[in-house]
Amino acid sequence: MSRAVHPELEPSAYGLLVRLDECGRQRATELAGYIGIGKATMSRQLRALEELGLVAREPDPADGRAWLIALTGEGQERVRRVREARRARYAGRLADWDPGEVSELARLLGQLNRGMER
Asked: 2-116 has which fold?
């Protein structure tokens, strides 16, 4: 998915973009904790995303020493396009499934997602 957003993007960076899209701006330490990577790796990935114009840093109003990371308009648009392409691909693959099976898959995937967030 990351290469669909930008050909120079590291695979793990896609998760960062999705997290920012879903949760809004966050501190780098929050992102690192969520993804499960170290500060140095996070810093490198954020610098690359910033250079590609997909994220921007802004001062944290709650702490003048800290920065918040947010998607840029370009970052939001690229994530949206990739998500739409993924949805279309899944819809095509599931077109021949029985509607009850699709509903059951959606239910089970929701259960898996909730379990992963714990």
From this structure: Arc Repressor Mutant, subunit A (1.10.10)
| The pair of three-digit structure tokens given for residue 16, joined into one six-digit string | 């960062």
The number of residues making up the chain comes to: 118
Amino acid at 48: A
| pLDDT higher than threshold 70 for residue 6 | no
Q: Per residue in 19-76, pLDDT tens?
A: 999 999 999 999 999 888 999 999 999 999 999 999 999 999 998 888 999 999 999 9
Q: What are phi and psi of 53, to 5 degrees?
A: 80, 20
Q: Is 42 exposed, middle or buried (0-12, 13-18, 19+ CB in 10 A)?
A: buried
Q: In what order do the strands lie in the sheet with 63-71?
A: 26-27, 63-71, 55-60
- Is this prediction's pTM over 0.85? no
DSSP class of 48: H
